Amino acid sequence: MKNVLRTLSLAAVTALGVITIASARAGAPLATANTLASDEKPVAQTELKKTSAADVQKKTAAPASSKTPDNPDRTVLPIPEPKRPVYKELDARKVKPPPRFEVNAPAGAPNVVIILIDDLGFGATSAFGGPIRTPTLDGLAQNGLRYNNFHTTALCSPTRAALKSGRNHHTVNMGFITEMATSIPGATGQIPNATAPLAEMLRLNGYSTAAFGKWHETAAWETSVSGPFDRWPTRQGFDKFYGFIGGETNQWAPFLFDGVAQVELPEDPNYHFMTDMTDKAVAWIKYQKALTPDKPFFVYFAPGAVHAPHHVPKEWIARWKGKFDQGWDKLREETLARQIKLGVVPAGTKLAQKPQAIKDWDKLSADEKRLFAHQAEVFGAFLDYTDHEIGRMLKAVEATGQLDNTLVFYIAGDNGTSGEGGENGMFNEYTYFNGVREDVPDMLKVLDKWGSPETYPHMAAGWAVAFDAPFGWMKQVASDFGGTRNGMVVSWPRGIKAKNEIRTQFSHVIDVAPTVLEAAGLPEPKVVDGTPQIPMEGVSMVYTFDNAKANDRHVTQYFEMAGNRAMYHDGWFARTIHRAPWEREVRNPLQSDVWELYDTRSDFSLTHDLAVKNPKKLSEMQALFMKEAEKYHVLPLDDRLFERALASAVGRPDLMAGRTSLTLAEGMTGMMENVFLGVKNMSKTITAEIEVPAGGAHGTILAQGGRFGGWALYVKDGRPAYDYNWLGMKRSSIAATQPLAPGKAVIKFDFAYDGGGLGKGGTGTIFVNGQKVAEERIERTQPLMFSADETADVGIDLGTPVVESMGSERKSQFTGSIPKLTIEVYDANIKADARVQDAQKEVNRETR
């Protein structure tokens, strides 16, 4: 019966006729990522024929880029539909329909999976000699290739935008994270239409596409319900998105989107986002293959792990007890020995000197060692757990029977391990963003809770150096391989003959997109959605797949992040350390930075500075950096820190710019800090018109932030109240003594800020229908930030609760109605530059 149905189906298709855009000839020449017009000769064509590309072609049947109906021009996307015929016949039964137009991927094109871990250094995973077991990564390496000379940009948003576009991060306007974008081209945070992402190229060539996890590529002022949604995942080439838009999230209570719709979290005490996103990816992969088994997919799988907060189930943490008691100095030595034995680091490599700010482990107190060792245990468990979930996702691919023709990139870090935990680490990462120092004795009190929903933790910077071994620096430092060199494994059983081998060719995150295009037999598009494209700046790595000794093709690459900058060319590396992640001030003015010079061909870990011995080469490299910086929109350099956090100081768009009031109503939820009225360091008034039901009111009226910092106006058991939660460390409550009467009421909360600086206190007063019902002092307020993922919400408190006794999500929902709510701020005309100067002085004083 199946054969009969199949025969009938084929007959029907033959009768109707179908135009399918796919590879027509198995012998067609492989289209590379830099496919040229038919009358142009590709560069180094002879050399290309010597690589594995021909072998890959035999299995993928790549298309030519001719403009014939059978082989359409894929350099212009979308591929235009055929001209519609015009009929004069009245009766449809007498007309032969034209062939149906359909775009298919090239025959044999592989599925593509890109896995990107967050904030993970070169020396962390067992696949690259690190102390943390990563069996999924190890298994892929056994059947694929380890790349030990692969680089990122040193920071989240820039790496992600470069990865997906095949262009340098300044070319796609991502000079820093989206929240600190400026008005200067190269750093605006707005990905241009002229740099179409890989997902869009694949989608328009017949792929199904899906992204899961962290995004962090949408301009901060475009993250509200008003959009525009052009730079959201579903407008950047992905049919499906499930994850979070910002730079980090609470793994226990994330703020998520499915497409552009907010996700309501389940009432599950064991919920964790890492498992949730894996479940969604597994379901999508199985569903897609069940319906369209012959249609390849592209999955971008980007966990929030192992970025802070380090949240992981307790049973996983228990597995790592005692594994880091030797401390970070000894761990670096152990890691280097393993790396040399594995061959991922050359014999004779030495450990780079760690920063002076990082204390020697043997000079720490017993309390410091106990705290710091447990911080590393939680971090190790987080990675272990994450790698396990990645394995679960890949098993779903295997279950479809198509793992053999799935090209997997497992990139172990979008930058080096984070040193943003500072000297001691922190139980609440937002203390760092508000210039508040956490002391060891206080953190030891919550040691048993570390990694649980009650903490928002980060680890001491000494571990960042250890997990970046053998290098000396970490995340944010674009001028050191500890910030930019990340282990990567590539696996493609059908397309790569070599197994369990190491590739040493210099490569960069911008090389991934061209590699995917070449492997899929697709040319780089010249026009996408009507916009001429800036050519990709990366180089396909396919030439390395089956040729370990192939000469490097990516020979020149600049690095720059907030003044930390370097230049790589033909093995030479010139760099300057402009500022460490924990330093509030730059070390030197940009014009006076001290440069170093290294020969990476004999100095893997950058330990032998040759600047004095070879000043001529150093000058050449510095001149080359300036040339590349001009070419790729790196100039002018911007090393500002706190100024960039204030939109008005750097010319970044701000939805609330110039506004002193905002009128809201129930149902308006999920307003991230960048799209809500700024209420910090000034007076505010909240006026809520509510309706109290007959049984009395209960629930949140307006809240911003959550468990680790924020405020809320609410009604508890009929009584209006206001709470200020200072970084989860100190809570101030103001509450009326009498319940509200049923019916309409106007609740007003007035906060009179003391002034005289940032983060000061003030007096809070609650009024009901014009009558004062409560008044109390609030001694301290947060000066700079509430949260990167908690939101402002009317009628509910999403995420974690500002007020623990009120709960969050459905538990906090207001039982009455809120037809109108207005929030107003005063002293909003303070000049931005004066506020920034105050902020810098305040933070410097707090962190000394």
Write the layout of secondary structure elements.
Elements: H1 2-16, E1 18-21, H2 45-48, H3 53-60, E2 76-77, E3 100-103, E4 111-116, H4 135-142, E5 145-147, E6 150-151, H5 156-165, H6 198-203, E7 208-214, E8 240-244, E9 257-258, E10 261-262, H7 273-291, E11 297-302, H8 314-318, H9 327-342, H10 366-399, E12 406-412, H11 430-433, H12 440-444, H13 461-467, H14 481-484, E13 487-491, E14 501-503, E15 507-508, H15 512-520, E16 527-528, E17 531-532, E18 556-561, E19 564-569, E20 572-576, E21 596-599, H16 615-631, H17 642-645, H18 647-650, E22 661-664, E23 683-692, E24 699-706, E25 709-716, E26 719-726, E27 730-735, E28 743-753, E29 762-768, E30 771-778, E31 792-794, E32 817-826, H19 832-847
Helix pairs in contact: 7-10, 9-13
Description:
- This protein is of the alpha+beta class and 848 residues long.
- It has a ten-stranded mixed β-sheet, sandwiched between helices. Strands 22-32-23-28-29-30 form a six-stranded antiparallel β-sheet, with no helix packed on it.
- Residues 1-19, 23-69 and 828-833 have low confidence and may be disordered.
Brief rundown of the structure:
By secondary structure, this protein is of the alpha+beta class. Helices cover 23% and strands 20% of the residues.
